[in-house]
Write a structure and sequence with these properties.
The protein has 310 residues and is of the alpha/beta class. The chain has a single domain, classed as Aldolase class I (TIM Barrel, Alpha-Beta Barrel), CATH 3.20.20.70. Helix content is 49%, strand content 11%. It contains twelve helices and eight strands. Helix 2 packs parallel to helix 3, helix 3 packs across helix 4 and helix 6 crosses helix 7. Its EC number is 4.3.3.7. InterPro entries: Aldolase_TIM, DapA-like. One of its GO terms (molecular function) is 4-hydroxy-tetrahydrodipicolinate synthase activity.
Length: 310
Amino acid sequence: MALLDESASGVFVIGVTPFTDDGALDLDSTDRVVDFYLERGATGLTVLGMMGEAPKLTAEESRIFVRRVLARVGGRVPVVVGVSAPGFAPMRELAETVMDDGAAGVMVAPPASLRTDDQIYNYYEMVAETLGAATPFVLQDFPLATGVQIAPSVIQRIVKAIPSCVMLKHEDWPGLAKIAALRAASDRGEMRRISILVGNGGVLLPEELSRGADGAMTGFAYPEMMVDVWRAHAAGDIERAHDLFDAYLPLARYEQQPGLGLAIRKYVLARRGAIASATLRKPGGKLSQADIADIERLIARQERRLSELG
């Protein structure tokens, strides 16, 4: 598998980690959900992300799970692995393992302790040193989860100084102006142009694409939404992209509920046959019968609207 680079585009689906009803890793469902994502047009996969329940896995489980994903993908698309960790020793250990196994790159989010621009820059300098120049990495910019605000000027500084930073996972919110600022900086030759893939469940995807994003790196129970919106936008059919997005938006919005979002996503993925069980490893949210009724209503309305759009 080729290594991740600045040209990456499309939809890198953030994959769920399937568990059995009793909370054990479900490797058969891991194969099934990988097939599900690829059949729906994913151009890449990202595993052990925040919505992949990575903190709930042991180090050995993480290695087993990533190896299973990589084996099932079989080099068809690049796989990025989240290696964020409290310290650099476990980050290095996991990164070396997954890269040796065939990952295309790794993703690192900043720790919540970072407060100043210099602290953020110095941290990513140490990340690059820890990973080594041969390991490309994704800078995950998710202030709502990490509490770390990274200004466009800091991202520019990191990109200019650290060649192994090849992608920004943009999850700032509001953040459309940040995408535009980074694209303007690279257009002016002030920084290297890197790939920008967006998160937050894709709920601003059409607007983010119009501001210069190259695609999405996030999860949703209907990953084909992101793929079809990206393809329509890339073909210049902006109205079609918005029409498709609008059909899925009510469910995407519902899935963005803090604390329940992953439970909703896994419920729908199980309903669609992508995984055998909707189980989250504890601690995790749990759906009520009223929640499930909401989801079923939203899916029925979504299906009617998609039928109308053809």
